What we know:
Elements: H1 8-17, E1 22-23, H2 24-31, H3 35-47, E2 51-56, E3 59-64, H4 77-83, H5 103-115, E4 117-125, E5 130-144, E6 147-154, E7 159-164, E8 173-177, H6 188-191, E9 193-200, H7 206-215, E10 223-228, H8 232-239, H9 248-251, E11 253-255, H10 257-263
Antiparallel strand pairs: 1-3, 2-3, 4-5, 4-8, 5-6, 6-7, 9-10, 9-11
Helix pairs in contact: 2-3
Amino acid sequence: MQGGNCSITSYIEACLYWRKPFTRKGIEQRFNVTKPTALKKLQPYVDAGYVAIEKLGQVNLYTPVGQPITSNCVPTFNDFVEKHPVLVGGIQTPLSYQRSEAPEIIGKLLFAIETQSRFEAKYYSVSSGQHEHRVIQPHSIVFASGRYHTRAYCEKNRRFADFVLARFAEEGEITSEGFPEHTGEFDDDWHNKLVLTIISDPRLPENNRKCVELEYGMQNGQLELTTRKALLNYALQELRVDRYNEDPFAQQIVLEPKCRERIKDSFWPKG
């Protein structure tokens, strides 16, 4: 797999900034370079004390030593996703969002996604109102409703669910290899696609409805959008059709009645 617009140096610094473990062999594969080239790129960081080389079976594991490098290329998680998509597993949805997530959590989650490993940490649950011990196996990163989430299998609840990154109370640990049946391949709601049919609010006068239809690029008075079943509630929230507004000029668009009936039993599992 190629590194895309991400240079080897930029990749190394991003890994160090986000404290994401990486290997020399991984660099060779990502950027299609030889072992000497990869070692040459790594040597300055070894000399500076940012990278330690450890023997882990037959793999050279490179991990940040002490404080992670301060890199101007990844000041926020949004920039991290945009500029270093090669580091992110699963869906990538970079949006203009300036919230900065903790590198200690991000790096390990990304590593867990890449290696299909189990991640263990304390997580603040809204339903219980307290921190709970969770062991999850993440497979994707999602941006929705102004926050970053990870989609993962939850061993406590025995299902795939959504976890808000900011609710992790600690950096957590990679505990072990994950279970094959807990990978994203078996997340049915993630792979199940739903088609949403949007129409202008029928309460609007005809001329206003035509204006809305033009704005949204509707064809024959309808707009069809596709979303994952797992992300349905977020999609409805972003479209602002998740609730009814008494003012049709504020509502503007609604779900087509047959569509609303078709998806009414689809829910987003919460973490």
